[in-house]
Design goal:
heterodimer, A: about 120 residues, mainly beta, 4-stranded antiparallel beta sheet, B: about 110 residues, 6-stranded mixed beta sheet
């Protein structure tokens, strides 16, 4: 069945970088846009980034623009979030999520299990 | 940016009763070229990722029980659970996908009375 399995995350010092990964299986990964959404502890959901199915278009939340980069490797069914210059307010549970379409639908129909990022000195 | 506001912040309903959630957007989510409202609802249970319930404001996702329904258009939307079940205890989020950044409401926490 369809699955998104996330890896990466952990504790990182402010100003440092970290990469999150998300592996898709059970569906044709290259046909779907992908998103990252985060949730700070005890808080609501915050959309972070979107990448089209073929990687040609990307969108970012203002809070991460210029610091985070979303990318994908369709040959490996992998989605990535490269996070740099991390700040305390980037600490959150990060989810990858599948777009119902190529990236133009923006309906998040399947979600990974989440991976925790802690930013602390 | 579009701001999504949900009300109430929390809701306590008796089993078998109706639960109603409201979501308001700071600008219309109705795209006139396709006459669709770019609004979805998600359910999140503790310790779990969100689950898609409703999209296009009123289209139920496959596998979602028919006690869940969505309505509304433009800037005002409603999610209704017709007869509350114990497994419906969760936080419910509305989400606009009309324009980037694709914002969520702050969530409404549903409890059993």
């Amino acid at each position: 069945q369809m699955k998104l399995v996330q890896t990466g995350g952990g504790v990182v010092q402010p100003g440092r970088a970290l990469r999150l990964s998300c592996e898709g299986s059970g569906f044709t990964f290259a046909n779907f846009g992908m998103h990252w959404v985060r949730q700070a502890p005890g808080k609501g959901l915050e959309w972070v980034a979107l990448i089209w199915n073929d990687g040609t278009n990307k969108r970012y939340a203002e809070a991460v623009k210029g610091r985070f980069t979303i990318s994908r490797d369709n040959s490996r069914n992998m989605l990535y979030l490269h996070m740099s210059r991390l700040r305390a307010d980037d600490a959150a549970l990060y989810y990858c999520a599948r777009d119902q379409g190529i990236g133009t639908r923006r309906i998040l129909d399947q979600w990974g299990q989440g991976t925790l990022v802690t930013v602390s000195a | 940016d579009i701001v999504m506001t949900q009300s109430p912040d929390s809701l306590a309903v008796s089993l078998g009763d109706r639960a109603t959630f409201t979501c308001r957007s700071s600008q219309s989510l109705l795209y006139t070229s396709d006459n669709k409202n770019y609004l979805a609802w998600y359910q999140q249970k503790p310790g779990h990722p969100p689950k898609l319930l409703i999209y296009w404001a009123s289209t139920r996702e496959s596998g979602v029980p028919d006690r869940f329904s969505g309505s509304g258009s433009g800037t005002d939307f409603t999610l209704t659970i017709s007869s509350l079940q114990p497994e419906d205890v969760a936080i419910y989020y509305c989400h606009q996908y009309y324009s980037s950044p694709y914002s969520f409401g702050q969530g409404t926490k549903l409890e059993i009375k």
